[in-house]
């Protein structure tokens, strides 16, 4: 009897001792906290308006107070124990234009996590939320425009990513940025994209997190289990040669931006149970735009992350009650738990992409009018490449359906697969499972 009791005790003790199977990336994602997201959004909404043309002298109201607070946040992020983050500022004068009456000083504010691979000093990732807000009239710089969800939520997401990734040892740099003047014509993002291009930076991927905290639509509609990833199918900057290749391959669904969106879904969903990232086959909501398009215009892959349900009573509205109906983008409608879910997906995906080995180049697809598909490429010289992953999907599918893993090399033959019924992409993978973006064929032979 006594022996049995002892045995039972041993079993129950074993059962109570948790064996940690958490990976380092899961640990990073777990650090995301909704309370910090809520605090950032409340602080930003507290500036009354953050319209790009609003007051810059007040300590408590307007865009100047907001950007000084953001700059202080950037310094705090850099001062965290073990932080590798460096404060970042991109200051410029916006010339008069349709939504800017006179020359106006504009500032993008953020932090950079410098990449550790010296051979890839020019490669980077970017995540942005725009800190400017607007009222009904896009030129109204005086009325209240709390901009809690649009886009206090996106700024909070970018700062929270920086917070949890502050000491992450990535191969390439990550810019975490609060952009200005999205509502005045994507001016901040356009300046940042051009600056990075002028500096010779190669943006592997940019994500605009814009409206990432609303789960309530109209009536009883609620959606907290999904979010949308918008990306262009045909690059807005397409050369004639690229157009001919796209037409020959049927590559309308394989632009670099679309591959980025696929990657964010594939790797991001691992880090948040119960959240689906939906690959939207359009560059943005119908007739509307966002900061990611400014990066597309410079030829960089970019996507927009947004909540699934928007509520237009709460966007671009002066807070007010009309006939019992409440308007305004107030903090009351911001759902920090939902925003935290989206943040975790981007933390996971950004870690993997920023840590992954260099991708292969010059992928050639051959074997047309034969039973086999043959893929050749210029191998990456990155010594960390441990495997080659060939992604495949049937020609009617949106997301990759199969990943075929091969030893490092420069050629794969897929007997019986053929070229016509599938799409292909080639990625590099390191020992920890970090993967580059999938590179679709850049030539047909
Ligand atoms: Zn917005």
From TrEMBL:
InterPro entries: M28_fam, Peptidase_M28. Residues 111-312 form the Peptidase M28 domain. Keywords: Aminopeptidase, Hydrolase, Protease, Signal. Residues 1-17 form the signal peptide. It comes from the Bacteria. One of its GO terms (biological process) is proteolysis. One of its GO terms (molecular function) is metalloexopeptidase activity. This is Aminopeptidase. The lineage of its organism: Bacteria, Pseudomonadati, Acidobacteriota, Holophagae, Holophagales.
């Amino acid at each position: 009897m006594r022996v049995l009791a002892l045995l039972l005790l041993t079993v129950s003790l074993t059962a109570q001792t948790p064996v940690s199977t958490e990976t380092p990336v899961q640990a990073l994602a777990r650090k995301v906290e909704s309370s910090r997201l809520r605090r950032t959004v409340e602080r930003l909404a507290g500036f009354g308006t953050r319209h790009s043309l609003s007051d810059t002298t007040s300590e408590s109201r307007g865009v100047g107070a907001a950007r000084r607070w953001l700059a202080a946040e950037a310094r705090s992020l850099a001062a965290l124990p073990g932080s590798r983050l460096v404060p970042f500022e991109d200051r410029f004068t916006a010339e008069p234009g349709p939504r800017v009456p006179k020359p106006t000083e504009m500032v993008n504010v953020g932090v950079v996590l410098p990449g550790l691979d010296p051979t890839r000093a020019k490669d980077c990732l970017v995540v942005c939320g725009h800190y400017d807000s607007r009222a009904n009239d896009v030129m109204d710089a005086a009325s209240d425009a709390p901009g809690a969800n649009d886009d206090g939520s996106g700024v909070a997401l970018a700062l929270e990513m920086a917070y949890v990734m502050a000491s992450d040892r990535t191969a390439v740099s990550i810019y975490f940025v609060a952009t200005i003047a999205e509502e005045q014509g994507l001016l901040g993002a356009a300046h940042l994209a051009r600056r990075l291009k002028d500096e010779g930076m190669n943006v592997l991927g940019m994500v605009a997190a814009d409206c990432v905290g609303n789960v309530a639509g109209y009536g009883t509609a609620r959606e907290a289990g999904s979010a949308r990833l918008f990306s262009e199918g045909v690059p807005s900057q397409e050369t004639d040669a690229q157009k001919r290749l796209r037409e020959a391959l049927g590559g309308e669904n394989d632009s670099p931006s679309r591959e980025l969106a696929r990657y964010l879904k594939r790797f991001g969903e691992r880090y948040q149970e119960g959240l689906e990232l939906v690959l939207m086959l359009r560059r943005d909501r119908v007739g509307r735009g966002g900061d990611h398009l400014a990066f597309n215009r410079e030829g960089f892959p970019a996507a927009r992350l947004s909540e699934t349900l928007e509520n237009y009573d709460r966007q671009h509205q002066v807070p007010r009650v009309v006939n019992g109906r409440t308007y305004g983008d107030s903090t009351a409608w911001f759902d920090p738990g939902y925003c935290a879910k989206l943040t975790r997906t981007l933390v996971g995906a950004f870690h993997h992409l920023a840590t992954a080995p260099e991708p292969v180049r010059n992928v050639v697809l051959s074997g047309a009018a034969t039973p086999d598909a043959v893929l050749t490429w210029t191998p990456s010289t990155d010594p960390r490449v441990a495997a080659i992953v060939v992604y495949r999907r049937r020609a009617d599918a949106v997301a990759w359906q199969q990943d075929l893993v091969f030893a490092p090399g420069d050629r794969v033959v897929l007997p019986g697969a053929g070229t016509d019924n599938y799409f292909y992409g080639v990625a590099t993978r390191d020992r920890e499972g970090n993967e580059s973006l999938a590179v679709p064929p850049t030539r047909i032979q």
